[in-house]
């Protein structure tokens, strides 16, 4: 009997010992710098927001966060780089709305973002804003709708390219309100905004951070924000929902995704650190000044958002008759 007890005890000790490396790994993550990969060039909204959050979150994790830019192919280069990285929590994707729109816009993607990546958390949402050049004789959405109908398609609309967030946001608004604009795609959001400022196009739906300086300078006139609620930087500008078109609500976002198979304890550690970081009032103030709205969600909530938006934009792309490239 004693021998049996010793054997059972020895087996238990071996089992405990076998679990110790995993437990030690969970307790020690992270042990070295973490890399965040941004799918756009430096200086854009996603990049600026990510760098602000990375700086604050590194203190809560106890390690530095290195932000790298891997731009190109509508975000696919960055997505693939992260999906193929070792799933250990040290290489993460700064994810945005392209994660939801890319499957509808590109037919030969290198990866499946819903199988090869997993949600970590959502940091902020970034609304678009409907703007017109000051020469347009419309000071409200209703006036723009009336003017558009009178103009018989002569009002042109600038975007950052076919299938870009600016294009899809404007398309959703047109579909909901019945307005018909002539679409003029540019090579990026920057040129599209400059075209609106110069009067080359009459209407645009840029992201709020990109439009704020031009609105403040009086070079663009805001008619509505496409967020669910009003934004602190433009408190007098109504939401598209308040104006009667809630289905035209459109927004970008900034969050984190990890390679599929990343250990749950690493994801949990990142979630907890992100939650603490986004509670920082100074960080919130900086992000709001840039046009971003704090909207922290853990992995389940963020994953649901991306899936729902993918279905929604698939419908918009189909209605527009866009052929996946």
In short:
InterPro entries: BUG (IPR005064), Bug_dom1 (IPR042100). With about 325 residues, this protein is an alpha/beta fold.
Describe the model:
- With 325 residues, this protein is an alpha/beta fold.
- The chain folds into two domains: 32-126 and 251-320, 3-Layer(aba) Sandwich (D-Maltodextrin-Binding Protein, domain 2), CATH 3.40.190.150; 129-248, Periplasmic binding protein-like II (D-Maltodextrin-Binding Protein, domain 2), CATH 3.40.190.
- The protein is built from twelve helices and eleven strands.
- It has helices spanning 2-28, 45-61, 76-83, 98-105, 113-116, 141-151, 165-177, 189-198, 208-216, 264-278, 281-289, 299-320; strands at residues 34-38, 65-69, 91-95, 117-127, 129-132, 156-159, 182-185, 203-204, 221-225, 251-259, 293-298.
- The strands form two sheets. The protein has a six-stranded mixed sheet with strand order 2-1-3-10-4-11, with helices on both faces.
- Strand 6 (156-159), helix 7 (165-177) and strand 7 form a beta-alpha-beta unit.
- Helix 2 (45-61) packs across helix 10 (264-278) and helix 4 runs parallel beside helix 12 (299-320).
- The radius of gyration is 23 Å and the shape is globular.
- 41% of the residues are buried.
- The model is unreliable at 1-25 (pLDDT under 50).
